[in-house]
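[job 4471] stage=fold_predict status=RUNNING
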Amino acid sequence: MAELHRMGYEEFRVCAAISPNGSAYRCWLTVKLNTWQRCGIFPHLTSGELVLFTPNCKFPWDTTDMTPTQIALKIIADYPEMARLAKGHDEHYAAWWRLALEQCRQGHYFYALSEGRNAWRDGCVPLTGTEDTLPYPPPGWAVKQSIY
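[job 4471] inference complete, writing structure tokens
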């Protein structure tokens, strides 16, 4: 994601949740257009090209020998409509992403939902392994907003 932002695709969004049994970290890569207006960490789960689901942050292709730049270019090539919608600058989300990335570097991963936590209800974004939280990321544009 940081590489996509560096390349000028700052309207990409990462939405994450923890599986009900707590054993899987589920990530969706999407675009601002496809995240909720109230809280930009929730995706509007559409089918098709506006969502790339990466269970446990694993892409649908082998990234073992790929650099971050190669992964970003693969996303852009394989998801051209999403890349088109993500092209642009969003300084507010980029700043939020830097906060989230710093927490990730410390081993604290953000998520919208888990068995016991819910960003929608709590008014902040929980982190794994700490009681600290993140503020909501900037809102998206999706009007349909329902907890899955």
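[job 4471] summary: The two ends are 24 Å apart (CA to CA).
[job 4471] exit 0
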